[in-house]
Automatic annotation (TrEMBL):
Keyword Zinc included in the entry's annotation: yes
Annotated protein name in UniProt: Peptidoglycan DD-metalloendopeptidase family protein
First-listed, main subcellular location of the protein, grouped into a coarse class: other
Subcellular location: Cell envelope
CDD domains per UniProt: M23_peptidase
Source species: Microbulbifer celer
Bias-annotated ranges (Polar residues): 446-461
UniProt-annotated stretches for the region Disordered: 442-461
Length: 461
């Protein structure tokens, strides 16, 4: 051929001189045997894993990482021998729309619109989250016969086409097996770090902080040597753990003072946490509107302003946290102001009844509007550094009858939510006393071990 490269006689001569003919024949035979072995064994192993189409076209070099990523992202299509339908599985990726998933599955937009118009239940397909899975069943003409949405391992939504060309809706729910679990630990670094080392998930740690959020300021009050113990539910499906359920009973010792809480569902079906004698753990206001933030500036009427370098009252508490950290409403109320100003940046003011107001300044984003009603711990914005701010933080103010009060101390003086009524106390005790007794039994070995080592649960500075 014209494009065939010419052989290099010098190179061949050098090879012949340095590589005897007998050795070359032996090496060739060994290479042939090795190639024959690979040729015979490799396809057999691959065939057991998956049947791949044979391509006679030259293969392009693809890195293993790219190949693995493409295989993970690609939808899986197989044919159901019994029904004669093609089954395509697609996983929702970041930024995906329902139209993207139908296109990847090879199903027309007309089929998608017909499904979306089939009923109110189909509207939920417009709101998909990354990681969720869709299973399409398509006939030989490309018509969609059924679509399944797998929200998680416990929930599956099905839309199936009937003989009248209409879609029927069905929700399939599985119940996880629930078992009680116990964890205990001691604060050496932070609740988040030490809770994780004790075997608590991030969600359970956050729930623990929320339960005691009216009594303990987890940004200010935590000390080395504080202890905690928790009874919570673990969820299993087919023998495999799939997540954690709610906390059932919990103890937290902070600076030598012990707080106990137990979960209770009242006769109306409402669930909350209470002290062992039936008092609500929930106060009218939470202690901190940001989870696990660091206080960068305290309430100080004579503070030196970091920008203007003059003595100006600091009528709130600054919580340093990364930009985008959620900011919660401290209590139930109504948004009376929400906007932007040069000194405050993005801000939200919430009125709580006639006497109380809370203010949230320097937000990167506002998530509520003026006149909107909000609930305690509802996300109202995100931490930022807008306005006169030297870095990302939340400036939080608490006003009583129009006067600024120290947010770190005022909440302790405010009343809690309603306690268990006397008419329901017997039901409350019957439901919660076994949990508290179980928690106490679990705690005994840990307390005995601490006593043997002479450890104290009080605060250490």
């Amino acid at each position: 051929m014209k494009n065939q490269r010419k052989k290099n006689p010098r190179l061949l001569g050098a090879l012949g001189k340095n590589f005897p003919r007998t050795h070359a024949l032996a090496a060739g035979a060994a290479s042939f045997a090795l190639a024959l072995t690979l040729f015979v064994s490799t396809p057999e192993v691959e065939a057991k894993r998956t049947a791949l189409p044979v391509s006679l076209a030259p293969a392009e070099a693809v890195s293993p990482a790219v190949a693995a990523a493409e295989e993970a992202d690609a939808g899986i299509a197989v044919e159901d021998a019994r029904s004669g339908l093609r089954v395509i599985e697609e996983k929702v990726r970041n930024g995906d729309t329902l139209s993207d998933l139908f296109q990847r599955a090879g199903v027309s937009s007309a089929e998608m619109y017909q499904l979306l118009a089939s009923g109110q239940e189909a509207k939920q397909l417009a709101k998909l989250a990354p990681g969720e899975e869709l299973t399409f069943q398509v006939d030989g003409d490309g018509n969609l016969q059924s679509l399944e949405l797998h929200r998680d391992r416990l929930s599956r939504v099905e839309f199936s086409r009937d003989s009248g060309d209409e879609y029927n809706y069905a929700l399939h729910q599985r119940e996880a097996d629930r078992h009680s679990a116990y964890r205990q630990g001691e604060i050496k670094s932070s609740l988040f770090v030490d809770g994780g080392e004790a075997g608590l998930s991030n969600n359970t740690i956050m729930e623990l902080a929320n339960i005691f959020g009216s009594d303990i300021d987890f940004a200010l009050d935590i000390r080395k040597g504080d202890t905690f113990s928790v009874i919570f539910e673990e969820e299993f499906l087919d023998g495999e753990k799939i997540g954690d359920g709610p906390i059932k009973a919990v103890t937290f010792t902070n600076q030598g003072k012990t707080f106990n809480a137990v979960r209770y569902t009242d006769s109306n079906g409402d669930t909350s946490y209470y002290t062992p004698d039936g008092k609500s753990m929930r106060k009218a206001f939470i202690r901190t509107p940001v989870d696990f933030a660091r206080i960068s500036s305290h309430f100080n009427p004579r503070r030196l302003h970091p920008v203007f370098k003059t003595r100006r009252p600091h009528n709130g508490t600054d919580y340093a946290a990364p930009t985008g950290t959620p900011v919660y409403a401290a209590g139930d109320g109504k948004v009376v102001r929400a906007g932007y100003s040069k000194p405050n940046g993005n801000y939200v003011f919430i009125q709580h009844g006639d006497r109380y107001m809370t203010r949230y300044l320097h937000l990167s984003k506002r998530l509520v509007k003026r006149g909107q009603r909000v609930k305690q711990r509802q996300v109202i914005g995100k931490v930022g550094s807008t306005g006169y701010a030297t870095g990302p933080h939340l400036h939080y103010e608490f006003l009583v009858n129009g006067r600024h009060r120290n947010p770190a101390t005022i909440v302790r003086q405010l009343p809690k939510a309603k306690s268990i009524p006397s008419s329901e106390m017997a039901r409350f005790q019957a439901q919660t006393q076994p949990l508290l007794a179980q928690l106490e039994r679990f705690n005994q070995p840990a307390l005995a071990q601490q006593s043997e080592h002479g450890e104290s649960s009080g605060s250490t500075n």
